[in-house]
């Protein structure tokens, strides 16, 4: 499938997950997107999956403790300054569940976009704001580069017999990582300018024509969003 | 008409106390292949950047004189406007890649210079075929090896069909065979080529003319034959000393022993039944083509990777020098960086810096030194620990020939204190420094 209809379909699924108020609809979308993400290489997908599912789990566990809705109390906790009573109600759990599913669905839609779509072709398809789209594409690629740089710093430290342990040890690498990214960005900018980036009269390599599947996917994306709003 | 004409070029980077180039004049004719040699920091890269218009447009600084490329004065034309007439292949391919897919990467320059859309894909695929990278067209750039990525970057510049091709140490990450292929391809293009290299034998075997740059000045501008009589001896091509390959039965204590080691990245097996023994007092050179598993074996020996099977024994402290000196830029002062491996002992750090010729650099920021000095700082950062087992991964990458001679002498001088394993593509350096060699071959068992 071409990247534009695929991106539209992912965006529509994320939108439906945000709009829909039936838990089974949101859960189905999240499950479908999870299955889709599992098609990505294991080495790349785990960061996205752990980040998304971890965030969703946090929302599910924490939001009942800080919200105060519902009348069917399941657990009565102590009174905490500022927050108040840590009561957990059935309604709070139901709300937390659907919010967690929504977050998971949106996160997984982004994960599928980053992991599975050909971002280059998406960029090629953009007929406007090409510089911004290019910047977005480069930013998406920054994550695995930073990951590799961080692993390189840790390995070089281990090679000197220096252990990097805990969040504090890793936090100390943030500054060199940032400095390294800036240096890399400068080198890349220089190489891009040497290859003519920014010159007037740019042309575009022709993209392959859309297939019936592409057109169907785009139509399905529109139907999904309209359907979710209407229903 | 000359492809490039430089007249009285003097250039000083912003904030620099001395000029990077001083009164440089030269003329490059169509189809000429020119080797640009000289020590690290002598101004070779700055000269190439001036020819691409990147100096002064990208870097700023004070620029005097003129550079004219294919009739375009670089003071009036930006680097992007010169693209197509001139193309540059930089040292580190990872810092040049914009796109995630190979064919899009190659097409990027063609789109920028306004190539008619109907010609973009045919020229892209022709350039990939020319660079021997046609089979990579659909691959993701992040999945390529250093050698493959450098071929893709070469294809990206070949696609532009430039009249002047600038190669700034383009083969530093490649094995000798890969490096020769890249240079052969570039030199057969028909464009004028300026190639800067730290393995001088590579360009000297292919060039018509040699520029030797020191302290920002062109000291030698001569035909290859004339230059061979005038170049410093370290820059002259010479055959590597042949190393014995099967003398693991030395006399020193065994400090590291790997037996029948197997390792795989996901489903790709890179080592299978590989063995290695390192003894105190010996320097061992580990060579072989890109992707054969040299670095993996070195990391297993250093304890940074665990093998899937086989056994590893080590005695004493082991230190590993990564092939990227950029990994040794964690602290804000050079002395603190060097002291990391010895629990912050600044006296030892200061001595280690002096040993590699960086006395007086204690307060400098590690990112504020030249690439050659970064390499020395990285070396000091592991030597400071005085390890029993020292493993150096490509320690001569980007290092100039005189410094390679110094490094070999330094490693030989301290050889009796430890076991040393040097992973390298530089066979001349390997011959100078090592007592014996191990040549890893693709999917073969290596025993040494």
Describe the structure in brief.
The complex is a heterodimer of chains A (231) and B (448). With 231 residues, chain A is mainly alpha-helical.
Can you tell me about this structure?
The complex is a heterodimer of chains A (231) and B (448). Chain A is mainly alpha-helical and 231 residues long. Chain A has 9 helices and 4 strands; from the N terminus they run αααββββαααααα. Chain B has 448 residues and is α/β, with parallel strands linked by helices. Chain B contains 15 helices and 18 strands. In chain B, strands 6-7-8-3-9-10 form a 6-stranded mixed beta sheet, sandwiched between helices. Chain B has a 5-stranded parallel beta sheet with strand order 15-16-17-13-18, with helices on both faces. In chain B, α4 runs parallel beside α6. The longest helix of chain B is centred in the first third of the chain and has 14 residues, at 117-130. Mean pLDDT of chain B is 91; it is low at 444-448. Classes of the chains: A mainly alpha (231), B alpha/beta (448).
General shape of chain A: flat
Mean pLDDT of chain A: 87
Indicate the proportion of strand residues of chain A. under 5%
Helix content of chain A: over 70%
Number of E-state strands of chain B? 18
Measured between the Cα atoms of the first and last residue of chain A, the distance is 28 Å
Name the largest protein-protein interface in this structure. Answer: A-B, 49 and 64 residues
Seen as an oligomer or otherwise, the chain set is heterodimer
Helix run count of chain A: 9
Number of helices of chain B: 15
Low-confidence stretches of chain B: 444-448
